[in-house]
Structure prediction request, 346 residues.
Amino acid sequence: MLQEYNLKKSKAPIMDSEFDTSMRKFNLNHSNFSIAVSGGSDSMALSILLGRYSKLNSINLYALIVDHKIRDESSEEASFVSEKLNQLGIQNHILVWHEGIKYKSLSKSYQNEAREARLMLMTKWCKVNNIENLFMGHHADDQLETFIYRLIRGSGINGLSGMSDDICMNNLRIIRPLLGFPKSRLVATCKYYNVSYVDDRSNQNTKFSRVRIRKLLHELEEEGLTKSRIYKTITHMNRAKLAIDNIVSDAINQFLFYNDNKTIAKIALSKFLNYPDEIGIRALSKILSKISGKSNPPRFISLEKVYLMLKKANIPDNGNLWYDRTLHGCKLIVQGEYLVISKENL
Prediction:
């Protein structure tokens, strides 16, 4: 679905009726919910709104706090957040990332590692406790920063379409109901309900790319590249992505076969290689992610290299140009007119 960005009433708190409208599009079955809470204004605003929504709809809500151990005060902050959630009547659990201690003395950025560890801990907790939905407090300003970050890295349509508000990763549905609201409204929501939050000092540290991008966005706005124009571009990219995704799904049905438990994929190369490169590369990426079980797609450089090698080999007429290889935790083996993909450790 296309994300709408509500930039009006930028200083007003988010009302229950607005949040209910945002939630309705996800078609949730009102099973148990979990929510990622860092203690910042974003996740605390979501805690307030989702807490009120859950009580109204008789849903069990569990807040997950990660004590990352990177800063000396991280355990104290986690306890502070837990107490705030108790005051809101939200059950909560503190998950500890013990590995974070080793990042204390490092000068380089550790945000990517911390983000991945946080998601891993919460995913494991949800799996053990049979929770299907994890809510996150990303907002419209996060979407802008993500777009610029990915633009700098040379991302294609997928990356420039921004974060999805509803995505499945490792059999866990991750939902971002506030993605259409600016951060200012989340801060206003905390103030409206008189809920304090943690002010993360790293948000001012320019060694982190997102902080530098935040400053860059202000400079770009002065040059005429406004937030609303970037949102329009993200929407256009998202529309293109949805269209291409539909084409890829239809194409996959024409050339892909799975074994009974879907651990091995067979691609009919004569059909697969007849599609345009963009469709073929996206299809191969999707299949590799499915077989490997990894939440992130393969690196594009490696993916494109393998795909172009398949085309160059022109199997089966010139199969001697191909040699079996691994990619994204998968083995890729040519058997006759098929490319067989299986997990690397099978």
Remarks:
- The chain is about 45% helix and 15% strand.
- Residues 68 and 97 are 5 Å apart (CA to CA).
